[in-house]
Design goal:
- It contains 20 helices and 10 strands.
- With 610 residues, the chain is an alpha/beta fold.
- It has 2 domains: 332 residues, ABC transporter transmembrane region fold, CATH 1.20.1560; 243 residues, 3-Layer(aba) Sandwich (Rossmann fold).
- The strands form 2 sheets. It has a 6-stranded mixed β-sheet with strand order 6-7-8-3-9-10, with helices on both faces. The chain has a 4-stranded antiparallel β-sheet with strand order 2-1-4-5, covered by helices on one side.
- Strand 1 and strand 2 form a beta hairpin.
- Helix 4 runs antiparallel to helix 6 and helix 15 packs across helix 17.
- The longest helix is centred in the middle third of the chain and has 54 residues.
- It is elongated.
- The protein starts with a helix and ends in an 11-residue tail after the last helix.
- The N terminus and C terminus are likely disordered.
């Protein structure tokens, strides 16, 4: 099956050492802001391990004392009390470590997730047109979860084990001969090297599992988002086969990963068994020779259990740490994506109640090989309406995207109030623009929420007024749940006309000085379009308005009409002037009039001011 470019690029080798340190360096500042909590948590960790290592030593003394029949029973009682206190201390310091570090972990996850979320919203439209929603959402989900996993495994597994190994080796060296230390070191080294080698090999399998999982998830989300299209073409079985083909790749990779894990576990147990047998043989020989007591034998055995129990999970922990680093790196990669459109350090805020717009020799291309606009020049004086018409692909909607600064021009300049857009803050620029797009996408929430989204702080009265102005109130009041009716994913529960009226109400509620109507009534029937003409006319009165239209009858009274073809303005003027010129606009007008006459009478007269 053909894989997407994103998923293919993600099938990279395991995270290298340079990437590991880069990822850890990126993560460190989020943790170090709680340095006192971190240091206290590490202190509790060391205290817990000291108590844990002291338990076998006390147990050894107890056994030796009980083996001596001449000692008073009071001494073992004291040792029992100390044994219990040490056991409790181990648990106490372990839980204190958890309590101290809990907020550090959750705050780090929250701050990084929020920063990624903000960064994604700050990226250009180009990134969002190319991204795959399912893959990006999985990257964020895995990255956030992996921060907790990485901290948990490092602080609660790896670091405690290293502390305990150091303490145990020190005690074995101090109390017994060097042979115990040598056997322990050989066993541990063999175990760790074997685990790391096999785990590194398994990371490739694990990455393949994640890649196929992301690809399947992306495909499923894309298919569900296009539910209606699937139904239109009766392609449910086709989509199921595509999804199953991707899941079969996941199944194969997951099976190999699981089998390799079993071989890893088996190899680890062989190494542990050999090490434990050698240690116990040497300890038993020491007891027989009289160099060691029964308590020493118990002590060595207890130390071995304490060492090998956490090590038995080393393969899983190592794999998860490496995978967590890979997932965190992938999320940090999103933060490293170039924003493309960014405010300059000296950007100023647009604070004007009326605005004028100027396009001067603007050229633009989405891709280097395909230029969209060629030397576009026009002005929209404050309070005037300019309409743009032309065939599909002539560059009409691109004007709106550039004015909204989804992209920057390749050449030329766009100005508002004689100030280059690039010198204005994006927040103030977009606050001054209200747009009604041709393809309206709504949030999966209530109608009220979607209207209020135009101005989240607006009162309920303002929201209801905007709905009435968009001729939406009567429709909403007929619904069982009224304004609380949920619109479904991307607004699929509403018709095209209903969605467009919600978009109009949203723009009216925003109440900006500059309005952009991009085929704003393309999904409305003639009767509904006529009903909201006065509202749209009132909304645009006194505001600078750019109208991108297909039906020429809707822009007859615009102050100026621009006719675009092939990314160039080929005609400009008023409706009557363009008709008298008998050029492309006149041809389009004649053709549309003939189509309307053959389809029946239509009363469209949008933007006809008295």
């Amino acid at each position: 099956m053909r894989r997407s470019s994103r998923n293919s690029s993600d099938s990279r080798p395991a995270v290298g050492d340079s990437h590991v340190w880069q990822t850890l360096n990126s993560l460190a500042p989020y943790l170090w802001q709680y340095k006192w909590r971190v240091l206290l948590a590490i202190s509790c960790l060391i205290a817990a391990k000291l108590a844990n290592v002291a338990v076998p030593i006390v147990f050894k003394s107890m056994i030796d004392d009980l083996s001596n029949a001449h000692l008073s029973i009071a001494l073992p009682t004291m040792l029992l009390a100390l044994y219990g206190a040490l056991r409790f201390s181990n648990s106490l310091f372990t839980e204190l470590r958890e309590i101290l570090f809990a907020r550090v972990t959750q705050q780090a996850v929250r701050r990084i997730a929020l920063e990624v979320f903000r960064h994604l919203h700050a990226l250009s439209l180009r990134f969002h047109l190319e991204r795959q929603t399912g893959g990006v959402s999985r990257d964020i989900e895995r990255g956030s979860r992996s921060i907790s996993s990485l901290i948990s495994y490092t602080l609660y597994s790896i670091l405690p084990t290293l502390v305990e190994i150091s303490l145990v080796l020190g005690i074995l060296f101090a109390k017994y001969d060097i042979g115990f230390v040598v056997i322990t070191l050989i066993s541990l080294t063999t175990y760790v090297v074997f685990t790391i080698k096999i785990s590194n090999w398994r990371i490739g399998l694990r990455r393949l599992v994640n890649d196929t999982d992301s690809a399947a998830n992306t495909q499923a989300i894309d298919s569900l988002l296009n539910y209606e299209t699937v139904k239109y073409f009766n392609n449910e079985d086709y989509e199921a086969r595509r999804y199953d083909a991707q899941m079969s790749l996941w199944e194969e990779a997951a099976t190999k990963s699981q089998i390799s894990l079993s071989w890893l576990n088996l190899g680890q147990q062989i190494i542990i068994a050999c090490g434990v047998t050698a240690m116990m043989w040497r300890a038993a020989a020491g007891v027989v020779d009289g160099r060691m007591t029964i308590g020493d034998l118990v002590l060595v055995n207890a130390f071995l259990i304490q060492l090998y129990m956490p090590l038995s999970f080393l393969g899983v922990i190592y794999r998860e740490i490496r995978q967590s680093l890979a997932d965190i790196e992938r999320m940090f990669d999103l933060l490293r994506v170039n924003r493309e459109i960014a405010d300059t350090p000296d950007a100023i805020a647009l604070r004007a109640k009326s605005v004028s717009v100027s396009f001067h020799a603007v050229e633009f291309s989405y891709e280097p090989k395909r230029q969209i606009l060629f030397g576009v020049d026009f002005n929209i004086p404050a309070g005037h309406t300019v309409a743009v018409v032309g065939e599909s692909g002539s560059g009409k909607s691109t004007l709106a995207r550039l004015l909204y600064r989804f992209y920057d021009v390749d050449c030329g300049q766009i100005s508002i109030n004689d100030c280059d857009l690039r010198k204005l803050t994006q927040a103030s620029l977009r606050a001054a623009i209200g747009i009604v797009p041709q393809d309206t996408v709504l949030f999966n929430d209530s109608i009220y929420y979607n209207i209020q989204y135009g101005r989240p702080e607006a009162s309920r009265d303002d929201v209801l007024a905007a709905a009435r102005a968009a001729q939406l109130a009567e429709f909403i009041e007929r619904l069982p749940d009224g304004y609380e009716t949920r619109v479904g994913e991307r607004g699929l529960k509403l018709s095209g006309g209903e969605k467009q009226r919600v978009a109009i109400a949203r723009a009216l509620l925003k109440n900006p000085p500059l309005l952009i109507f991009d085929e704003a009534t393309s999904a409305l029937d003639s009767k509904t379009e006529k009903a909201i003409q006065a509202s749209l006319d009132n909304a645009s009165r006194g505001r600078t308005t750019l109208v991108i239209a297909h039906r020429l009858s809707t822009i007859m009274n615009a102050d100026q009409i621009l006719v675009m073809n092939g990314g160039r303005i080929v005609e400009r003027g008023s409706h009557l002037f363009l008709l008298e010129s008998n050029g492309r606009y006149a041809q389009m007008w004649t053709l549309q009039q003939q189509e309307e006459e053959s389809a029946g009478p239509s009363d469209n007269a949008m933007y006809q001011r008295p």
